[in-house]
Each structure stands twice: as C-alpha cells, then as structure tokens.
C-alpha cells in the first residue's frame, strides 16, 4: 500500500503513475492545506516540460467540445494530456457539468488523459494562482500537454489563459457579434484563432472580420511584453516574416473537422516559441508575474497577522472619515 499521507509518500506514488496520489496532491494544493507548500517545493523543479495550451472564448463557442477532440487528437499522436477546466459559472447553470459529463464519456479510462475542473471558490486572484499551481503539478506529473479551458470573460479568466504558452481564442458565428473576442478584450492574447461551428452560416464572415482586425495590427503579446521589468531581453525579431502572425482556422468540433490542422498549428507555435527564444521570455514573464503575486499575498498576510481586527477597523474608519489618507494608513499598517 502506498503511503498517501506524507510528502515523500505522495511524490513517490506520483512518480509511479498513481492516479490517487495525483488527485490528492491537487486537492492539497487547491485547499491550501499544510502539505501544499512542501509538495510544491518538491514538484516545482520537476515541472517545466509540458506545453501549456490555453483555450478561451465567449460562452457557448464550443470550447469544451473542442478541447475534447484536441485531446483525442493528441492521444492519436501518443502524447499524454491533462485538461484543467476553469469554470466561473455557477454549478447550477449546468453548462460545465454537462460538458464534463460528455468529456468523461469520451475520454474516461485512458491513463494518458487526466481531467480536472477548478471551481470558482474564493477570490478571483486566488483562482488564478490555484490554477497555475494545479497546472504545475500536472506538468510535474509528466503530462506532455496541459490544456486550460477558461471562459473568456473577466480579467481573471484572461489572465489565466494568457499564462499558457499557446493561447487559442475560439470564435463562433451566430452569437450576435461577428467577433466576440473584441468585447471580451482577449483578441490581444491570441496566438491562434479557431472559428468553430464552421458548419453554421456566417463562419466566413467571422474569418473575414478577424483577418481585417489582424491586418489593422492588433497589439500582439510580444509588444505587450515591452516595458515590463524582465530579467531577460526580448529576442530581436527584425525580420517581419520571422514574427508569429496568429493564424485563423475553421473547425467543426462536433464533427472532428479541422482539429488535426488546429493541433498541427499549436505544435508549429510550440516549435516557433522554442526556436525564436520567445518561450524563454514567456517563462520568465510568467515567473515574474507569479513571484510578484505571491509576494503581494505573503506581505499582506504578514501585515494582517501583525495587527488586530480592532486596529484595522480603526484605520478603515480613519480613512473613510478622511482623517488619514490611505497611503499613510497602509504604511503604518505594514510598518515601513
Ligand atoms: N453546430 C455546431 N455546434 C457545436 C460545435 N461545437 C460545439 N457545438 C455545440 O455548441 C454547444 C456549446 O458547446 P460547448 O463545448 O459546451 O461550448 P463552451 O464554449 O465550452 O461553453 P461554456 O463552457 O458554457 O462557455 C453544444 O451544444 C455543442 O454541441 C460545432 O462545431 N458546430
Ligand atoms: Mg465549456
């Protein structure tokens, strides 16, 4: 019987491919139990090999269906896949549950696939960090491709999707807007566009609209990286042809059409990231963002632990009544 109650026990079971160990590790991480940090300290150096794929887009564009067939395509290529579905909708809406059930039916029983849903518990910042930690654990567990599905609404979901190496923005015709990603502000994070539901009327118009927007030069992620403090230099891409232009692909997820091409394109992007040096930049960018986020949380918790609820309430009242400005109050609370 493997020992699933200690860090060394869990890690050695994980290394033997024990699924229960993996599920337990993820639960510890999600719950922030006392084993979470010691586990992550061991797992972190083991991670870094997986290619992380973000799939995002407006509700109902067919993301879950697409993720399902992408995973099957990867299995045909003998690559192992973990799927993390981040669902910000209420569990009562049924959408995600239904999607998950379909997934279970199609993908269950394959040891090369692991599926996990992240519920929106706690704060949104917490969800982004929890998702990153779970993805790291799946990477450490040896899954070669990790797919992260998020609905492209709201800052946090965009943030989660943009931490992937390759982000696929899913569009679909017939949802009111020709291109939904504009409204959601996720156009900029796309490495690849998938116009899904290509069996429906209007798919070509969506493709045309996207082409036009790309022609207008929407800011790419590479440009967004400029001006941020990073320990590595952005590789100089002097030749326009060497830069990555987000390709637009048509898919019909329900009929498994265009999926092979989509996976080919994801793999091309992966190779591009490595050969251009962009992958290293993205990894540093992710490390910088993550470190800053954790430092902020740690400092906040530390400061809160050194004060009393009464004292905090006094400070809040003083700021609300304009007897003290929030900067001075914050400095006093942090004691700097
Ligand atoms: N006609 C058509 N329907 C599709 C296609 N792909 C998905 N659908 C259908 O669209 C509906 C929504 O699909 P989901 O995969 O749940 O979409 P989603 O983007 O994951 O939805 P949320 O997670 O709720 O945002 C389902 O009824 C699918 O069967 C497609 O290519 N063509
Ligand atoms: Mg879904």
Structural account:
- The protein has helices at 7-15, 19-31, 36-43, 63-76, 95-107, 124-140, 155-162, 180-184, 203-215, 221-225, 259-276, 278-305, 309-320, 326-334, and strands at 51-57, 81-87, 113-119, 145-151, 166-171, 192-195, 248-250.
- It is of the alpha/beta class.
- It folds into three domains: 1-45, no CATH class; 47-276, Rossmann fold; 306-334, no CATH class.
- The chain has a seven-stranded parallel β-sheet, with helices on both faces.
- Helix 6 packs parallel to helix 7.
- It is globular, with a radius of gyration of 22 Å.
- The termini are far apart.
- The model is unreliable at 90-95 and 222-230 (pLDDT under 50).
- It binds guanosine-5'-triphosphate and magnesium ion.
- Guanosine-5'-triphosphate binds at residues 59-65, 95-96, 99, 151, 196-197, 199-200, 252-254.
**Nearest-angstrom radius of gyration?**
22 Å
Number of domains: 3
| Superfamily (CATH H level) name of the largest domain | P-loop containing nucleotide triphosphate hydrolases
Give the distance, in angstroms, between the N- and C-terminal Cα atoms.
52 Å
Which strand order does the major sheet show?
A: 3-2-4-1-5-6-7
Element order, helices and strands? HHHEHEHEHEHEHEHHEHHHH
| CATH architectural arrangement of the largest domain | 3-Layer(aba) Sandwich
- The first-level CATH class of the largest domain is given as Alpha Beta
If helices are DSSP runs of H or I spanning 4 or more residues, what is the number of helices? Answer: 14
Q: What proportion of the residues is helical, as a percent range?
A: 40-55%
Mean pLDDT level: 85
Count of individual beta strands: 7
Q: According to CATH, what is the topology of the largest domain?
A: Rossmann fold
What is the SS-derived class?
alpha/beta
Overall geometry comes to: globular
Largest sheet: 7 strands, parallel
- What ions, cofactors and ligands are bound? guanosine-5'-triphosphate, magnesium ion
The stretches of 5 or more residues where confidence is low (pLDDT under 50) are: 90-95, 222-230
């Amino acid at each position: 019987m493997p020992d699933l109650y200690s860090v060394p026990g869990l890690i050695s079971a994980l290394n033997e491919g024990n699924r229960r160990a993996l599920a337990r590790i993820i639960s510890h991480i999600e719950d922030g139990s006392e084993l979470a940090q010691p586990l992550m300290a061991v797992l972190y150096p083991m991670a870094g090999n997986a290619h992380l794929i973000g799939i995002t887009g407006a509700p109902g564009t067919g993301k879950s269906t697409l993720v399902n067939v992408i995973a099957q395509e990867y299995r045909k290529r003998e690559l192992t896949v973990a799927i993390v579905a981040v669902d910000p909708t209420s569990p009562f809406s049924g959408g995600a549950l239904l999607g998950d059930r379909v997934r279970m039916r199609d993908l269950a029983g394959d040891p090369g696939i692991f599926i996990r849903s992240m519920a929106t518990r706690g704060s949104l910042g917490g969800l982004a960090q929890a998702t990153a930690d779970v993805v790291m654990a799946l990477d450490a567990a040896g899954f070669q491709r990790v797919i992260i599905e998020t609905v492209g609404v709201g800052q946090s979901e965009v943030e989660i999707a943009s931490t992937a190496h390759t982000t696929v923005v899913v569009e679909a015709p017939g949802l009111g807007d020709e291109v939904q990603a504009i409204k959601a502000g996720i156009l900029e994070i796309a490495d690849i566009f998938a116009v899904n539901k290509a069996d429906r009327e209007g798919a070509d118009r969506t493709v045309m609209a996207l082409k036009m927007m790309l022609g207008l030069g929407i800011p790419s992620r590479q440009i967004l990286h400029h001006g941020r403090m990073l320990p590595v230099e952005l590789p100089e891409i002097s030749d326009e042809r060497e830069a990555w232009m987000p390709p637009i692909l048509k898919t019909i997820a329900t009929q498994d059409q265009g999926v092979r091409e989509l996976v080919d394109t994801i793999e091309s992007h992966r190779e591009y990231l490595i050969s251009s040096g962009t992958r290293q930049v993205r990894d540093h960018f992710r490390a910088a963002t993550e470190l800053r986020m954790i430092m902020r949380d740690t400092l906040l918790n530390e400061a809160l632990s050194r004060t009393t609820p009464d004292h905090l309430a006094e400070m809040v009242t003083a700021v609300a009544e304009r007897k003290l400005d929030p900067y001075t109050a914050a400095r006093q609370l942090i004691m700097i």
